[in-house]
Design goal:
Elements: H1 13-32, H2 35-52, H3 62-81, H4 104-120, H5 123-133, H6 139-146, H7 150-176
Amino acid sequence: MARAETKERTWSFDQIYDEYKTSIYNYVYHLVGDREQADDLTQDTFLKAFRALPKMDSNLKVSAWLYRIATNTAYDALRRKKLIAWLPWQDLDHEPADVESADPQEVYTTTELVRAALRRMPQQYRAALLLYTQEGFSYSEIAQALNIAESGVKMYLSRARQSFREHYKALERGAGSK
């Protein structure tokens, strides 16, 4: 290894991009709700990561770092447009395996209720919930990605679940009355 390179790394930008491009795109898509914008923001995320990578420490937790860049990039774009349109995790675009025999209309209605409930939640709680449930992040990784104290993650997730339940139940009652 050359002396000029003081930080020993076991990964390269190409490896990071190949490993995380799909999951970062899916996460950003769920935040912004538009495929083209998600594609652009994913590219912006990796461009920012590429520029910052030489300055990063060798013990960098890559996934949390990338999700933090992606979160900030998406929030910036949403702020610029004053648009907060979140969609639920990708698995809701397909019929869940455990409801194969369910009525397709019932599955569709449930999916739409979940999407609507998520859209109504406060953005910081949605992000925490998506990172935990969809991406499988630990509390530490969520704290890094959202730039909050690790002790606050449990509170965020608790409030996110409560907010989701309240919005979902309210929407369900409204849907049942039609």
